Amino acid sequence: MADDDASSWEYQKARDLDLKGRDRMCSELREVGLIGASLHGIARLLTRFFLFCFIRIKTEGMENLPCEAPFVLVANHSSHLDALIISWILPARFTGKFFSLAAADYFFDTPSKTVFATRWVNALPLKRGRGGAKALGGLKDRLTGGDCIFIVFPEGTRSRDGKMNPFKPGLGMLVAGTEVPVVPCYLKGAFEIWPADRKLPRPGAVTLSIGEPMVFASVANNKAGWLEIREQLEAGVIDLGQRIPDQGEGD
Amino acid sequence: MEPATTTRWFDYTQAFDNRFFVTAGLGIGALLLIALLLTTVLSRLGRIGKERSSELFSRTYTWVALVIAIGAPLFFGAFWTILGLLFLSIFCYREFARITGLFRNYLVSIAVVIGIAVVFFAVLDHWYNFFAATSSLGVILIVTLGVLSDRPHGYLQRVALAVLAFLMFGVSLGHVAYIANDPDFRSLILLFLIAVELNDVFAYLAGNLFGKRRLAPQTSPNKTIEGSLGAVVGTTLLIYFLGGIVFEGTAMGSAGKLIALGIIVSVTGQLGDLVISSVKRDLGIKDTGNILPGHGGILDRFDSLLLAGPAYFHFIGYFNGFGLNEPTRIFRGIF
């Protein structure tokens, strides 16, 4: 925003103005106002309290977190708690602004899951599989045009054995050629707390390491560029994971 | 809390003693029933197309829902009436914020909501001096809280929009709510709502029958001068007759004052409509929302109340006053 246009008024109506009910909740255009942010704030407090009871969280590299939206947090994905833990450590001033990108076919397939995903986790639906570029267009528009924060798990699904899976290149479509910083994160210990084959989590300790932001403004927005971004991010996240010292698990 | 207040706030049996409220309520119910029957019969006979009939049905059902949503709080007492208008005010703000983009600024939105809450506290407390002060205090609150985010870029825009919204929805609808401090609030508010809503209907009918010259083609191309004049005549007659019942035996009960009130309500009602039309034109949108099937947004439906509310309130207030013998500063008793 240049200073010389300081006097001009710009209106940007809600992107989801024409949608309502479940259509609105299932749309990647859903925007959060004061009511939604308050509900999400309460949900976040309750989650914090709940997690506080049986999980200890250690963070490293908090200073790497950008002060202002927009940015993207990229992390490995090993349990259902991942998004909740990352949203726990984000400052309260970002409430209502950060969204977890969640699989549309899993989190938005029934009305009850949809309400949980939108109201509790503040998730936006991400259509998995082919034909992604079109579906990601709305998300990219939001990221570059508004002040929002995305939490993304580029593995595409939870790890079944605790080891990180290769990243999918879709994320590159969101950030290639933009000034939006991408922050790699590594979550260690979440898999032991709630592996994919367990119904309920168990107590434990988690370390969240936040790396330095990367910007892909000079990377071309094409397949080669997306693959390049994937390589860089995957390497960044793996590197973070290796730097976390091992600690006694489950004590 | 004094018994008079408890009665006014919560005693719904009083509604049955109110001849105007009962008669008008039954009348509106009958009207909606006839509308439903007529739509059903016409669509069964195939006299209206499928699309048209489903639109008519959704419109009528929405009216039924609206009448219940407005009638129930009025029936159950002044407390619920004020609470209902508070929600209406906040929902109007929500729509305004979503069409202007103001909703993205939480700090200013919080300021507006607090401002509206303070207005309605003054209303509920029956504390007129404070109520009169809330409009300026609310503006100060918005202007001040808007500074705290330390983002001068766009400050003037968001603060100006927020002040406009606060005055249009909080203070304006607060005036309507303040009428609930009168023991006869059911008739007074119902008369107002009937007059304002039928004002739109009269304008539509008269416009369809005689409409030739357009009133404000840039703002609202469907409105005509003939429709507008027809609404003034219709609403004035309506208030003359219905107001004659409501204001019987009071200072407002004379023909001259009732005619003046009718003209005031009709003109300010239409101006309120034009205000929201201008907002929509400026933003390039058709409807302010989609919460009411067949009507659009809440703001589309209740736009005529925004200017007519304070006008109706002050005109009657000058001659009759509201709740002059009712206990004031109600919450004082609690502390």
Helix/strand order of chain B = HHHHHHHHHEEHHHH
Low-pLDDT segments of chain A: none
Spell the H/E element sequence of chain A: HHEEHEHHEHEHEHEH
What portion of residues of chain A belong to β-strands? Answer: 15-25%
Structural class of chain B: mainly alpha
- What Rg of chain B is obtained from the alpha carbons, in whole angstroms? 21 Å
Distance between the termini of chain B: 11 Å
Approximate strand percentage of chain B: under 5%
Name the poorly predicted regions of chain B: none
If strands are numbered along the chain, what order do they take across the biggest sheet of chain B?
Answer: 1-2
Topology (elements, then pairings):
The complex is a heterodimer of chains A (251) and B (335).
Chain A: H1 21-25, H2 34-54, E1 55-60, E2 71-75, H3 82-89, E3 98-103, H4 104-107, H5 111-120, E4 123-126, H6 132-145, E5 149-152, H7 170-175, E6 182-188, H8 190-193, E7 204-210, H9 223-243
Parallel strand pairs in A: 1-7, 2-5, 2-6, 3-4, 3-5
Antiparallel strand pairs in A: 6-7
Chain B: H1 3-10, H2 13-17, H3 19-44, H4 50-76, H5 78-100, H6 106-125, H7 128-148, H8 155-178, H9 185-210, E1 214-216, E2 220-224, H10 225-246, H11 255-283, H12 298-302, H13 305-319
Antiparallel strand pairs in B: 1-2
